[in-house]
Amino acid sequence: MPLDVKKIKADFPIFCQEINGKPLTYLDSGATSQKPRQVIEAMNSFYETINANVHRGAHYLGERTTKAFEDAREKVKKFINANSPKEIIFTKNATEGLNLLAHSLGSTLKDGDAILLTHMEHHANIVPWQLLAERKNIELRWVSLDEEGKLNMEELEKLADGVKIIAVSAMSNVLGTINPVKEIAKLARNQDSLVVLDACQFVPHSPTDVKELDCDFLVFSGHKMCGPTGIGVLYGKQELLEKLPPFMGGGEMIINVTTEGFITNELPWKFEPGTPPIAEAIGLGAAIDYLDDIGMENIREHEISLTAYALRLLTEKHGDQIKIYGPSEPAERGGLISFKYGDIHAHDVSQVLDEHAISVRAGHHCAKPLMQELGIGATVRASTYIYNDETEIDQLSIALEEVRDFFKLNK
Amino acid sequence: MADLEDLYREIILDHYRSPRNRGELPCPPAHRAEGFNPLCGDEVIIYLETKDGKLTDLKTGGQGCSISQSSASLMSEAIKGKSVDEIKKIATAFKAMLGIESGNIEGIREESSQNGEGPEASEAVKLGDMEALKGVMKFPVRIKCAVLGWNTLLTELEELQNS
Description:
The structure holds 2 protein chains of 2 kinds. By secondary structure, chain A is of the alpha/beta class. Chain A has 2 domains: 5-30 and 295-404, Aspartate Aminotransferase, domain 1; 39-293, Type I PLP-dependent aspartate aminotransferase-like (Major domain) (Aspartate Aminotransferase, domain 2). Chain A has 14 helices and 17 strands. Chain A has helices at residues 5-10, 37-50, 60-79, 94-104, 127-135, 153-159, 181-189, 210-213, 238-243, 278-294, 296-318, 346-355, 368-374, 390-406; strands at 18-19, 22-23, 25-26, 88-91, 114-118, 139-143, 165-169, 194-198, 217-221, 232-236, 254-258, 261-264, 322-324, 336-341, 358-359, 361-363, 379-383. In chain A, strands 4-10-9-8-7-5-6 form a 7-stranded mixed sheet, with helices on both faces. In chain A, strands 13-14-17-16 form a 4-stranded antiparallel sheet, covered by helices on one side. In chain A, helix 5 (127-135) links the parallel strand 5 and strand 6 (139-143). In chain A, helix 2 (37-50) packs antiparallel against helix 10, helix 4 (94-104) runs parallel beside helix 5 and helix 11 packs parallel to helix 14. The mean pLDDT of chain A is 95. Chain B is of the alpha+beta class. The radius of gyration of chain B is 15 Å and the shape is globular. The A-B interface holds A 343-348, 351-352, 355, 362-364, 368, 371, 377-378, 406-407 and B 1, 3-4, 7-8, 13, 17, 39-43, 63-67, 69, 139, 142, 145.
């Protein structure tokens, strides 16, 4: 079912304003999404009516808060089709989830073990493993990409031989490429490797079923899916999480502490030391309700059709100047388009777009190894979500004409 | 678009498209320094040779937006052959033109003092073509681009003096 973008947009207070007398064209949801009123109100209402700490006070507010917090966990569980709320660890963001894994899962690796990464990873799925490789003698292997920005699967198969962990993004934040995760998981099953999915760009845009994906771990952030900042999720198979040592220590993650030592709490709290982001978890729960109402299948279809429109329009109107990265087939990519425009640096392009109240991201997108492979320093990235429609892609195209004229590029 | 015209003066685009003193110098005797803007990936590389407290030669490299690259190019023209002391004075004047004072964590003035003309503290130093970068002041995010080359240079000069 097509999305009613007008109706959806009306849910987002940020679009009520004009910037320099122009309506806001927000094409930077890959960095962070905007927040609907429903999420903002859920968080306000929490602070105004039931605010207390979780799992502590045996009083009315404490019980209500604990229930709301654990209800949010249950929503996440259902949203990604996990087996149990014990498999849902609340973190600060996806980056923390990956650091947790590199630390706790990393501690189970032995000297000489190997981890497989790809050239399209975000720094968050690179640096924690590099830190681990510095602590231990761990080999990092890298899968390269083909000309369309897809993983070289033949190479992946070869390099995966004997690795303990395959850590890969479900969807590239620069190229938009959606990776063949099921295929990778199948490969991993045959040889006892664990699969870690960076699903930051995937979960907000597509139905996610961790059983179908057959991944061992999966991380994502709340703020890219209509939720607040400061909340992320680490999913892990229960039997694996049970075996891992804790990451950070503190209150909540223990059952008992003596001067001699401590006993860790059960899942999921074992990995949640200190007061958690309570309002943020509740906000994420509200975001999930919101997205579920629209329907993740519908959201995915909307993005495929919008991406197809953008690829077609931008190529048609700017074919001489624009170089678009990533797969040419819209169904193989998520709702974002990275491009280079003539010899104009991405920053300079985005500066002119900003004059038109069009927000895009310009830069290396925290994926410098990828930029190196592409042989460029920066791209412009226009990323869409549920509140964007074709008229905004038209706006982008018109503003790009101005970029072309302003910097005197040939038509 | 008036602000944009102000930001992208003809001279800036000219230096961006045809950067001056572009290239490398053999190290040693030259020293190589690189500076990054981790936010956007802009990169400036500077090769410099000094003798008796003077900058005898320099080349620049790197890649990035028109502001970072043209600023490095303009800088290279302005400082070649100058003494380290003179260069520091020019740097201070250049930063002052963009509203940057030392001490502030971001190196950028508060909004309230940012509108209008730059401070007069550095009138004695003539900035010449570099004044074309004055328009950057209205775009706070881009100030870091404009000073990337300068900060890379100053850090290297400091290190050379201390070694």
